């Protein structure tokens, strides 16, 4: 049997198990163990599989995942987000679409603290959506910005998914985290520009506020009290990596310490909440490391089958331009994202994509940023995007899933345009990593 035929059977079995609802880690384990027995037999191959799992998950480079999760849990449990949201709100005054812009600005800020797209969307939905509905905001100006900005947690550093991606694809974690800064801010600015232009062309989408005039003194006071300390936390992670002062692991540890100090200073972190933050970290990190452990064996069986090498050899015989090949990869990710979870997509596609990128001599960090934006798109792509169902859960009674689908469409288009912009202008991604110390 040819390597490509074996590869097709492996992927077919894996996708089938995921579609019927088997947890990701167990699906990878099942396919890997069956493939090992079929291709290599019992005994030593299975023992080697277990040893490779042990060496893989005890990798020091995976430590930032747990530390970034803990940092986010500490800040969420301390309720600092509510105070920061109020402080950001002071800067918008009576701008048309104020609450929509507030959701984008807050979503971007909280993304740097949480890293959880689902938590980001749920929190913004609970805090902003009722007031938006009460003031007559259209669905595209209420639910749409919340869904889109909630997804930014996957992109704005520190991002646990970016660490996960970099570990699988064997690229620099620090370079990827820094490379995500400009694309993340670009997406947020595009969302904001779309909101402002839409409200200017059609004021009925977001009725103008009747609030008091902008108070610079009060806005500055809340900025100093609630926003600047959060900026220090973000700098303690991203800034020290950029300046070459610390490795990603050291920066993540520094971020945890600064988050803990800040939470205690604001008095929002009780013993009970501290325990909850620890338990939340254990649950999320344990899940991700279990998936990583099973994926290590899966990648080894893919290499042993020879299917990946045959596929790369086949692609090399085609007269595809590099940009066309990358466009096809993006299309595959987008289609898979309509019905699969993001980590599963990475684990399935990267063992094939990474050799293809080397074949065309493409920058791994550049491709990683585009793929992460694509994965963010999949979270809000109908019909099975997870953020759509989170929004359904926090939306007022009577909100149809169809209206949520329609609200997300303009922001999906914006994501697609940003991917195209990065595809033809790689410097947007590469400029910051190139000047890192």
TrEMBL record:
One of its GO terms (cellular component) is plasma membrane. It comes from the Bacteria. Keywords: Cell inner membrane, Cell membrane, Membrane, Transmembrane, Transmembrane helix, Transport. One of its GO terms (molecular function) is transmembrane transporter activity. The chain crosses the membrane at residues 6-39, 60-79, 99-125, 146-168, 174-202, 223-245, 251-269, 281-303, 365-391, 411-432. Residues 11-428 form the TRAP C4-dicarboxylate transport system permease DctM subunit domain. It is a multi-pass membrane protein. Signal peptide: none annotated. Its main location: membrane. It is found in: Cell inner membrane. The complex comprises the extracytoplasmic solute receptor protein and the two transmembrane proteins. Part of the tripartite ATP-independent periplasmic (TRAP) transport system. NCBIfam families: dctM (TIGR00786). Belongs to the TRAP transporter large permease family. This is TRAP transporter large permease protein. It comes from Pseudaminobacter salicylatoxidans. The lineage of its organism: Bacteria, Pseudomonadati, Pseudomonadota, Alphaproteobacteria, Hyphomicrobiales.
């Amino acid at each position: 049997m040819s390597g490509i035929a074996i590869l097709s059977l492996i992927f077919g079995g894996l996708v089938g198990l995921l579609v019927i609802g088997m947890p990701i880690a167990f699906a990878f384990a099942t396919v890997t163990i069956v493939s090992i027995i079929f291709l290599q037999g019992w005994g030593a191959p299975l023992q080697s599989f277990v040893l490779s799992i042990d060496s893989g998950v005890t990798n020091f480079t995976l430590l930032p995942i747990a530390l970034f999760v803990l940092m986010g849990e500490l800040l969420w449990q301390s309720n600092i987000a509510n105070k920061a949201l109020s402080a950001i709100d002071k800067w918008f005054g009576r701008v048309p679409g104020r609450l929509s812009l507030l959701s984008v600005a807050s979503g971007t800020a909280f993304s740097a603290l949480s890293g959880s797209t689902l938590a980001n969307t749920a929190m913004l939905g609970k805090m902003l959506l009722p007031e938006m509905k009460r003031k007559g905001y259209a669905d595209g100006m209420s639910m749409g910005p919340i869904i889109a900005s909630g997804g930014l947690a996957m992109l704005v550093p520190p991002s646990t998914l970016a660490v996960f991606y970099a570990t699988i694809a064997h690229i620099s974690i620090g370079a990827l985290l820094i490379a995500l800064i400009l694309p993340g801010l670009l997406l947020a600015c595009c969302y904001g520009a779309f909101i402002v232009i839409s409200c200017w062309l059609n004021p009925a989408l977001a009725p103008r506020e009747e609030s008091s005039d902008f108070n610079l003194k009060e806005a500055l006071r809340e900025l100093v009290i609630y926003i600047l300390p959060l900026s220090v936390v973000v700098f303690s992670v991203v800034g020290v990596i950029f300046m070459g002062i610390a490795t990603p692991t050291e920066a993540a540890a520094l971020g945890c310490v600064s988050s803990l100090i800040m939470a205690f200073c604001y008095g929002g972190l009780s013993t009970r909440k501290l325990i909850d933050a620890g338990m939340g970290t254990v649950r999320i990190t344990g899940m991700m490391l279990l998936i990583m452990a099973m994926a290590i064996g899966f990648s080894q069986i893919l290499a042993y089958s020879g299917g990946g090498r045959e596929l790369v050899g086949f692609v090399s015989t085609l007269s595809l331009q590099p940009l066309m090949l990358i466009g096809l990869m993006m299309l595959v990710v987008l289609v898979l994202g309509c019905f699969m979870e993001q980590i599963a997509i990475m684990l399935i596609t990267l063992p094939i994509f990474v050799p293809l990128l080397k074949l065309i001599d493409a920058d791994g960090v550049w491709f990683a940023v585009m793929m992460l934006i694509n994965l963010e798109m999949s979270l809000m792509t109908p019909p099975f995007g997870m953020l759509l169902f989170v929004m359904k859960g926090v939306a007022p009674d009577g909100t149809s899933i169809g209206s949520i689908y329609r609200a997300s469409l303009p922001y999906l288009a914006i994501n697609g345009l940003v991917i195209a912009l990065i595809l033809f202008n790689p410097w947007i991604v590469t400029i910051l990593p190139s000047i890192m110390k």
